[in-house]
Amino acid sequence: MSAGLVALITILMLLVMIFWGIHLPSALMLTSVAGIFLSTGNINVAMNVLGSTSWGAIRDYVFGVIPLFTLMGLFANLSGASQELYDAASLILKKVRGGVGMATVLANAVFAAITGVSVASAAIFTKIAYPQMSRLGYDKKVAVGTIAGSAMLGMLIPPSLLMIVYGTQADESIGALFMGGIIPGIIMTIVFCITIQIIAIRRPGAIPNGQPLTEEEQKIFWKVVLKPWAIVVLIIISLGGIWAGLFTPTEAGGIGALGALILVFVKRQFKFKTFWETLLSAGTTTGSVLFLLISAQMYSRTMAISGIINLIERFVLGMNVPNMVIIGIFILIFVALGCILDSTSIILLTMPLMVPIVRSFGMNTVWFGITAIVAIETGLVTPPFGMNVFTVKAAAQGIKGVEPITVEDIFSGSVPFLLGIVFVVILMMAFPILVTYLPSLMTRALAQ
Asked: I need a surface site. Which of 69, 105, 283, 343 has the fewest CB within 10 A?
């Protein structure tokens, strides 16, 4: 059977199963087996590929980075780091109009360097920031929109789960991807803070004025501001060690997880029940991601065996348009898929087809990966399945004394931050050096 016909049948099968509600890894595996069978006419070949992929897909040392950085984030939150970061940022910015909103963004940015998962940030900071903003008189749409929007930093600022997944799919250095996300992450943090200021100017009633520090707050100012120093040092050690070549990303994850666990003991937050729940949560997260990676590897092999990748690559290269137009089309595909699929699934579905094309253009795959991740993150706040939106809604339900919110409120409040993300994507496409500069410095430093 021709590669074109195999491609059409397998893509239709995959879409039908996804919309039918079949678990994505299962859908990918079934589609892959069917694709190889249609290409070779031999079911034994298809089953052998499935078996070898299941055995060998995730045995590589690099995949240890997933549970280790997941544990680092969970232990850090267990130690109270998220609350400390928010308290410090809130006190520093209290005099500024919209300061508590910007404190939420800054705390999310720093916490993103620990957890690497946007949904976790959305759940945590809804419980921490929403009561405070509600008490100060923030418009509820602005408040929850700020939380849902700024939580997207969790997948951009390293260590990021999406970067790890992309790196395994694109055969790209995870350390380089981590470095590549730093400058765009800082830019997006600044853009989000500017967005809050623009809202304050255009809708003065939506964001309250800043307030002077009380006498008590002046006395404890430096104590509160410096309290998160340990977690900041842990981030610097983890990412700085990768930069300096002192250890691999997997070793950095191990050091980060151990350091965060020590913080749990030092801050006297250790309880066996919560410790066990944290381990189970890390195991669940890791297991689901690794199962996805196995199915994605199977999917990639099917694409290669059937010749679909070569077929699509020839088609794209035959189009008489500039390379950046093709990249722009890819970005639009990411945004569209973000409305119906989760971020990890989008990476696993698209990268086996897109990365070879990007490489054939001679473009930097670190730049493409980071740009793709930012574009994919728009799906976290776009209807109908914005994960951050529903996470904020669920987390807000258990908070007493705050104004009730609806899903529509969160989607509406997230729009300005969605526009901010679009601006950052355009900026990265126009100036790739924003992504490639730090990885290139790291490469030169390691070569010396």
From this structure: 283
Phi, psi of 432 (to 5 degrees): -55, -25
Inform me whether the pLDDT recorded for 219 exceeds 70.
yes
The Cα–Cα gap between 87 and 148 comes to 19
Residues 17, 39: Cα–Cα separation, whole Å: 20
Is 264 found in the same domain as 317? yes
Give the pair of three-digit tokens for residue 87: 């308290």
Count how many Cα atoms sit within 13 Å of the Cα of residue 109 in the half-sphere of its side chain.
21
Q: Which structural domain range is residue 339 located in?
A: 62-447
Residue 41 shares a structural domain with residue 180: no
The structure's pTM equals: 0.82
Q: What are the structure tokens assigned to 73, written together? A: 């984030």
DSSP of 268-323, one letter per residue?
T---HHHHHHHHHHHHHHHHHHHHHHHHHHHHHHHHHHHTHHHHHHHHHHTS-S-H
Q: How many domains does the chain have?
A: 2
- Among 15, 30, 56, residue at a domain's last position: 56
Alpha-carbon Rg for the chain, nearest whole angstrom, is 22
Q: Are residues 261 and 362 in the same domain?
A: yes
Token pair listed for 335:
């945004």
233-288 per-position pLDDT tens digit? 888 888 788 877 788 888 888 888 898 899 889 888 888 888 888 888 888 877 77
